[in-house]
Amino acid sequence: MRSIDLESLDIFRTVVSEGGIVRAAGKLNRVQSNVTTRIKQLEERLGLALFRRQGRSLVLSPEGHLLLSYAERLFRLADEAESELRTGKPMGMFRIGSLESTAGSRLAPVLSRFHRLYPGVVVELVTGTTGALLQRVGNFEIEAAFVSEPFTAVGLQAMPVFDEELVLITARDVASISRAASLQGLTLIAFANGCSYRKRLEEWLGASGVMPARTLEFGSYQAMIACVAAGTGFAVVPRSLLAALKATSDVRQHELPARVRRNRTHLVWNGSPSTALARLTTLLSA
């Protein structure tokens, strides 16, 4: 069986990035008919439609999205192989994901040291919930991600990297809270579903039959903490993040049971680690 060549994948990738055949042909210095033929040949070889026509535009099919993720990975590995053979050091783009809390409280010194050691690597950091990050790692959209317990990562590699202590936060004028029942009827402030901290909190509340009056979803911890401080509701955050954001005096902290309070952040990745990822895991282990 004939394998897919990198040139065909490069043409396919350029059609995607340029948004169509015409612009891709100009970018590649090829005639349009040649680009169209190469895409058709690639589809015939795979027996799949990689694009669907939507009006006057081409959009990727689900199979096209999958091929694109593999193509990006192959080109990254090709670039990495060449650069390491030439220099012996990792180089190029290194896409990783992180929980916003981890990015805000833990990663600055790690990535700063990584950059000093490997200046040829360009780190691209994206944030999201544990669920969203695991999906992106599984699809090879990012190479690795820092995610939090609880999570299921079938087929992925993982290593524990940070221990976190979760705290319940409320406005400063709220009395001490030691039981989930004390939160009955109050508003939960959290990230969207897929957030592991939210899942842990909801499991604790559910075990006591507690239902928040409503749930407000936010996209940043700064907004969540400000909303809690204003008296809107309650949230769970890592204690290290409150310190990093200098927000410990803005809210009241309440200790959670040990089974909820103790948490661990893991680095997860898919398949064999690249040189850049291997260097990062070594740095984290040290």
Properties at a glance:
286 residues, alpha/beta, Arc Repressor Mutant, subunit A, D-Maltodextrin-Binding Protein, domain 2, seven-stranded mixed beta sheet, two-stranded antiparallel ribbon, 12 helices
List strands and helices in order, with pairings.
Elements: H1 6-18, H2 21-28, H3 32-46, E1 51-54, E2 57-60, H4 62-87, E3 92-98, H5 100-105, H6 107-117, E4 121-127, H7 130-138, E5 144-148, E6 157-170, E7 187-190, H8 196-207, E8 214-217, H9 221-229, E9 235-238, H10 239-244, E10 252-255, H11 258-261, E11 262-269, H12 275-285
Parallel strand pairs: 3-4, 3-5, 7-8
Antiparallel strand pairs: 1-2, 5-11, 6-9, 6-10, 6-11
Summarize the structure.
The chain is an alpha/beta fold and 286 residues long. Helices cover 45% and strands 23% of the residues.
Quickly give the CATH architecture of the largest domain: 3-Layer(aba) Sandwich
| Low-pLDDT windows of residues | none
Strand elements, count: 11
Listing every helix as H and every strand as E from the N terminus to the C terminus, the arrangement reads HHHEEHEHHEHEEEHEHEHEHEH
CATH topology term of the largest domain: D-Maltodextrin-Binding Protein, domain 2
Q: State the separation between the terminal residues, measured CA to CA.
A: 45 Å
CATH H level, superfamily name of the largest domain: Periplasmic binding protein-like II
What count of helical segments does DSSP give? 12
Gyration radius, rounded: 23 Å
Q: Report on the biggest sheet.
A: 7 strands, mixed
Average pLDDT confidence is: 87
The CATH class of the largest domain is Alpha Beta
Shape: elongated
The number of distinct structural domains comes to 3
Strand content: 15-25%
Which structural class is indicated by helix and strand composition?
Answer: alpha/beta
Helix residue percentage: 40-55%
